[in-house]
Amino acid sequence: MKPNKHKATHSAEKEFGGALGATCIPVFLPLTVLYLLSVCRSPAASVLQWPPHLPPAAQLWDPLAAVLVVGWITLQSFLYLLPIGKVRYVLYMYMFIFVDMIVTRILHLYFLGFHALSITAVLLIVCLWLGMPLGYLFELILPLAVCAIGVSYLLSMYLYIRSFWAPQHALSLGGNTGNPLYDFFMGRELNPRIGDFDLKYFCELRPGLIGWVVINLGMLMKEVELRGSPSLAMQLVNGFQLLYVTDALWNEEAVLTTMDIVHDGFGFMLAFGDLAWVPFTYGLQAMFLVVHPQSLSTLGAAGIILLNGIGYYIFRKSNSQKNQFRRDPTHKSVAHLETIATATGKCLLVSGWWGFVRHPNYLGDLLMALAWSLPCGMSHILPYFYVIYFTILLIHREARDEKHCRAKYGLAWDTYCRRVPYRILPYIY
Ligand SMILES: NC(=O)C1=CN([C@@H]2O[C@H](COP(=O)(O)OP(=O)(O)OC[C@H]3O[C@@H](n4cnc5c(N)ncnc54)[C@H](OP(=O)(O)O)[C@@H]3O)[C@@H](O)[C@H]2O)C=CC1
Ligand SMILES: CC(C)=CCC[C@@H](C)[C@H]1CC=C2C3=C(CC[C@@]21C)[C@@]1(C)CC[C@H](O)C(C)(C)[C@@H]1CC3
């Protein structure tokens, strides 16, 4: 079959530093993952050390890692395809870029992220019971990351090539500029699917997110091997991040309204972000604790648990309030909230959580990020990598979302911004 001839959207404004950013980021970020993992396991754990702590090439490859990564993705794909869980009929919107027209298609998806996590947990318990040395993940972490990066490159190439056979209306607005490197990075096709298998939705929530908590558990088991029992700091990091991942999978339908699913194409940025960046950098704290044990006072631990609790409360309540409002604005939990009407027919909340700041969910997420790093003490900057990166990501994301909302809601958005002047942190930002 011949590839389709697509019209490029040259007018779409380029993001992430344009073609230069799209050329450098796919080289720079994978190297950053390997560098961070390698520094994290070194006794000094100093990101500022010169010459930098680089892993010897021999430590980067192990065939066992390739088997584990491929086996893991296969297992999660199998769990994704199991016809159990809540079935939802999802309205997918395809925008015709040149004609001002929106086409909708109804797809059915099974929501069973939580089932996938639970079945994986049972399988892990069985493996541990059979004596599988999960702590070996610590030794294998660099080859595992190399394989995950390799898979994300292969997947992005497949996505780029197959997008030329996709119809024009299935392409994303931002990833179809005609510049191959930029389009490869941003992703041309919006929601690529093989039959009923939605590749972007699967990658966003399953292998990387569940892989992250399995790696954390591996670090905990390594600590048990080395010191006889897991430290309080390790238990807190594992517990907090498991709560975050469980929450994401329990509320997995909510991901369908995020800009990654609705707006961004599926290209290298998301494939690498989902499959390599999340599992191998979000859990750096647990890896750090294996080599740099910390003693935590009961009072300190209580303070950190409280911070994580407050962050989680703000994150969950604000996300649920918006999701409920978008699903059914007449529902009794949101019907009393003040709103602004927009020309699209949709309303914007101006009271409740969304009248406090324009992104209360980001605020909660950032408080949690801080709580995940504090158990690692104050002696090193490395365990704070996630908070620093995440602050930058969310500030950039907020700016991108603001641009989309201004384009979508026009004057109503400006009124909302006047009513709710702070973006993430009241009186500061
Ligand atoms: N851990 C991680 O790495 C990451 C986590 N996240 C988390 O994911 C979650 C989702 O984030 P994200 O997708 O960025 O954005 P949001 O969930 O904040 O969604 C933004 C959208 O919400 C709608 N909206 C904005 N303001 C209002 C309002 N006042 N009333 C009603 N609707 C409004 C708009 O869409 P519309 O009007 O079309 O409904 C807007 O585009 C967040 O909790 C975030 O912290 C995000 C990125 C990375
Ligand atoms: C540096 C780089 C390559 C960045 C790519 C960004 C991705 C890592 C993130 C973009 C949006 C994400 C979301 C989550 C994880 C990180 C990525 C993929 C998320 C699945 C985490 C759990 C949350 O509860 C969530 C479901 C709301 C969230 C959705 C967005």
Automatic annotation (TrEMBL):
Its EC number is 1.3.1.70. The chain crosses the membrane at residues 20-39, 60-83, 114-134, 140-161, 266-290, 296-315, 335-357, 369-395. Keywords: Cholesterol biosynthesis, Cholesterol metabolism, Endoplasmic reticulum, Lipid biosynthesis, Lipid metabolism, Membrane, Oxidoreductase, Steroid biosynthesis, Steroid metabolism, Sterol biosynthesis, Sterol metabolism, Transmembrane, Transmembrane helix. Its main location: membrane. It catalyses: 5alpha-cholest-8,14-dien-3beta-ol + NADPH + H(+) = 5alpha-cholest-8-en-3beta-ol + NADP(+); 4,4-dimethyl-5alpha-cholesta-8,24-dien-3beta-ol + NADP(+) = 4,4-dimethyl-5alpha-cholesta-8,14,24-trien-3beta-ol + NADPH + H(+); 4,4-dimethyl-8,14-cholestadien-3beta-ol + NADPH + H(+) = 4,4-dimethyl-5alpha-cholest-8-en-3beta-ol + NADP(+). The keyword Lipid biosynthesis applies. InterPro entries: ERG24_DHCR-like (IPR001171), Sterol_reductase_CS (IPR018083). It is an enzyme of class 1 (oxidoreductase). Catalyzes the reduction of the C14-unsaturated bond of lanosterol, as part of the metabolic pathway leading to cholesterol biosynthesis. This is Delta(14)-sterol reductase TM7SF2. The lineage of its organism: Eukaryota, Metazoa, Chordata, Craniata, Vertebrata.
